[in-house]
Amino acid sequence: MNTRKLTLIAVVAALYVVLTVSLGMLGYGPIQFRVSEILNLLALIHPIYIFAVGLGCAISNLYVYGIIDVAGYKKWAVPFSYLGKNPILVYMIFAYNRFFSTTY
């Protein structure tokens, strides 16, 4: 991995952390409002941003919740971010939730 890619990962991760922490407690809790989640769309441009956003989210959660939340988060965030790039999979999850969910 070259210096340019590492720099991009660091900048996007830092941007994620700043956007999340700057909103205070709106970005944490049972109902979250994170402006920084818009950075997930960068994964459509290049897969390297998946790791950048995952790292930024882990650092943001470490800031408030500590290591317990980060340990549970890291095993699911990156795989689901990668799977979320597949539009067929996203549609299948949407269709399943729409037609087989008991809550309306």
Structural features, described:
65% of the residues lie in helices and 0% in strands. The N and C termini lie far apart (47 Å). By secondary structure, the chain is mainly alpha-helical. The mean pLDDT is 76. The chain has one domain. The longest helix has 20 residues, at 3-22. It is globular and about 45 Å long.
Features:
104 residues
How is this fold's topology laid out?
Elements: H1 3-22, H2 48-64, H3 67-83, H4 87-100
Helix pairs in contact: 1-2, 2-3
| Number of helical stretches of at least 4 residues | 4
Query: What is the element string, with H for helices and E for strands?
Result: HHHH
Task: Tell me roughly what share of residues is in helical segments.
Answer: 55-70%
What's the overall geometry?
Answer: globular
| Multimerization status | single chain
Structural class: mainly alpha
The stretches of 5 or more residues where confidence is low (pLDDT under 50) are none
- Beta-strand residue percentage: under 5%
Number of strands: 0
Span between N and C termini?
47 Å
Overall pLDDT, averaged?
76
Q: Rg to the nearest angstrom? A: 15 Å
Largest sheet: none
**Tally of individual domains:** 1
Summarize the structure.
The protein is mostly helical. 65% of the residues lie in helices and 0% in strands.
